[in-house]
Amino acid sequence: MRVNNVVCMFCGALCDDLELVVEGDRITEVRKGCAIGKKKFLHYQEPVLSPMVDGKVVDLEEAIQVAVDILSSSRYPLIYGLSSTTCEGQVAAVRLAKAIGANIDSTSSVCHGPSTIAKQIVGVSTATLGEVKNRADLVIFWGCNPAASHPRHFNRYSVLPKGQFIPGGREGRRVVVVDVRPTPTARIADTFLQVTPGGDYEALSTLRALLKKIPPDREEVAGIPLARWEELAEACKAARYGILFFGMGLTMSRGRYMNVVAALSLVRDLNAFTRFGAIAMRGHGNVTGSEQALAWTTGYPFAVNFSRGTPRYSPGEFTAVDLLARGEVDAVLVIASDPAAHFPAAAVRHLEQVPVIALDPHPTVTTSVAKVVIPCAVSGISAAGTAYRMDGVPLRAKKVISVAYPSDAEILASISEGVKQ
Ligand code: SF4
Predict the structure, then answer these.
(1) Ligand 1 pocket test, candidate residues 11, 83, 144, 288, most atoms within 8 A of CB
(2) Which helix (H) or strand (E) holds 106?
(3) Ligand 1 pocket member 129 (CB < 6 A)
């Protein structure tokens, strides 16, 4: 069977043009995906995970019942992850969080959460990737490396494609990369500006000052001669349509959300001269959807607490790393994520001391430390659902294969039902 227009849910580019050949329960061929996407589809079953409690294989119902018991008796649980599952799974997780008075947080809090805080402070002038493809003649990548993290971004949206008003494709665009080190993305740039680490806020503020004709009182900013910033400011003003893609180089370096406040303010200021937008380079396939789903259902995008019955929002207080590092939570449900592999040591130490329930299709470091392991279908391959692309466009991911395990949305609904009973 041939399946066309398949959405790849691996990264935030959410390519929706993949073509698969399916034979029985195997995907035998993938066309159009990048190497990462192809590997995800071709090896979606490997390695296999079984339902487990305390390291012993059990049946799925028993694993779910143990999860229900843990969460029912927990006084201050945490539900974390969500970024590689569908919006249906995310909404089911919110329902469960509400039922048990849990904290709920997504991987957003360790990637672009600061961008979302910045958007709440200054707003965002943004665009769809379709607009970028068809209109952008100036493309800036700041603190991100899509050549490695989003391999088809250049081809499909930002650098190479011919667009309605960019008939020359690559020749019709100027590409600028700003980063603290030369990256594969910098190699394709027309202009590369290597800023000193921690210099982003200063550089962005300098560009804003130049737009307002306020001359900075120095000849060099963030390790770059002022004349080069002046040239970039003029190029931004002269563009017919500019776009700023920004990454974790801004959100996870000194200044964090204030770096993004400066970037979004720059983009807002540029709209006095031309059309300019900003898009965060979201990493996980549906991390954008996790913020959307939490915002529809709770009013807040991440770091939400239900312990008083109504949702409360407080990054730094109800974010997963902080709750774990302070040793506050007494049970953790991890959905489609691997915090044991990526969190700071203090947070992982607490994760090892409390009962962890891991809901995942594949073995991870977190499943290896979990008390309860519940395997589920793979979102976008063996479970259908909605995912949001990095520009906020929702796409419907297909189910192309049937597997023995239910989707995480169905498993979370079963846990919620068990908790209520
Ligand atoms: S760029 Fe991202 S969404 Fe597109 S095929 Fe590669 S991994 Fe999948």
Answers:
(1) 11
(2) strand 103-106
(3) no
Q: Do residues 127 and 243 lie in contact, with contact meaning Cβ atoms separated by under 8 Å?
A: yes
Q: What is the pLDDT of residues 210-250, one digit of tens each?
A: 999 998 999 999 999 999 999 999 999 999 999 999 999 99
**Ordered domains of the chain (ranges, CATH):** 47-109+285-420 (3.40.50.740), 113-280 (3.40.228.10)
Cβ of 15 below 6 Å from ligand 1: yes
Quick check: 64 and 418 in contact, CB under 8 A? yes
What separation in Å is there between the alpha carbon of 7 and the centre of ligand 1? 9
Q: What is the pLDDT of residues 17-39, one digit of tens each?
A: 999 999 988 999 999 999 999 99
- At 116, the pLDDT band (50, 70, 90 cuts) reads very high
Residues 103, 330 contacting (CB under 8 angstroms): no
Strand order in the sheet with 26-31: 2-6, 18-23, 26-31
Residues 280-294 pLDDT 10s: 999 999 999 999 999
* Beta-carbon contacts of residue 310 (< 8 Å; ≥ 6 apart): none
350 in ligand 1 pocket by Cβ < 6 Å?
A: no
Give pLDDT, residue 25.
85
Instruction: Determine the average pLDDT of the residues in 170-182.
Output: 97
pTM of the model: 0.96
Expressed in angstroms and rounded, the spacing between residue 53 Cα and the centre of ligand 1 is 34
Separation of first and last alpha carbons in the chain: 43
Please report which confidence band the pLDDT of residue 48 belongs to, taking 50, 70 and 90 as the band edges: confident
Binding site membership of 189 for ligand 1 (Cβ less than 6 Å): no
At 45 the pLDDT is 78
* Ligand 1 atom closest to 18 (CA): 5
Residue 97, H or E segment: helix 87-100
Cβ–ligand 1 distance for 255 under 6 Å, the answer no
Does residue 243 have its Cβ closer than 6 Å to ligand 1?
Answer: no
CA-based nearest residue to 159, from 180, 177, 143, 178: 177
Indicate if the pLDDT at residue 373 is higher than 90.
yes
Residue whose Cα lies nearest atom 4 of ligand 1: it is 15
Is the CB–ligand 1 distance for residue 11 below 6 Å?
A: yes
Name the residue type at position 92: A
Q: Are 171 and 32 in contact (CB under 8 A)?
A: no
Strand partners, 130: none
CA–CA distance, 317 with 331 (Å, rounded to integer): 17
